[in-house]
From TrEMBL:
Species, as recorded: Paramuricea clavata (Red gorgonian)
PROSITE patterns: RT_POL
InterPro entries: RT_dom
The name this protein goes by in its record: Uncharacterized protein
Pfam families with a match to the protein in the record: RVT_1
Amino acid sequence: MFKTRTVKCGIPQGSNLGPLFLLYINDLPNCLTSSSASMFADDTNVSTNGKTNDELQERINVDLENIHQWLLANKLTPNKDKTEYMIIGSRQRISNLVLTDPKIELGESVIKRVHKSKTLGVIIDEHLLWNHQIQNIVTKASKGIGMMRRIKQFVPKSTL
């Protein structure tokens, strides 16, 4: 009647493990000392601030080490392919602040820097501009309109 499956990575969407996982990771933000965590389902964003490159690097790396220890204690591993960081600020502020990319680490892994990221379906860039998000929506809408044009001869107008 029931078949046992081993889940090597992640939690199957819609399974009864989802709510249990949320309870399991609920105390993750408690290990942060100078950062804050925003959590939704299995996505976690950690943010901090600083006036200098060194200050940013120090603050986030201390908390990422705390997260690494928390993950080890709870027998969890992060998805390293989805782990990234972004420095947010005005063009002038970022160019003055970031001469070289800070070395941000989680455990033994160096985290890659990105200039834009998709979070909960919204594309955010390092200057908090909407260009990438708008372009993404325009592209999706154009594809949808194109599909409707192609099927209009096969489908009643009331359906379109």
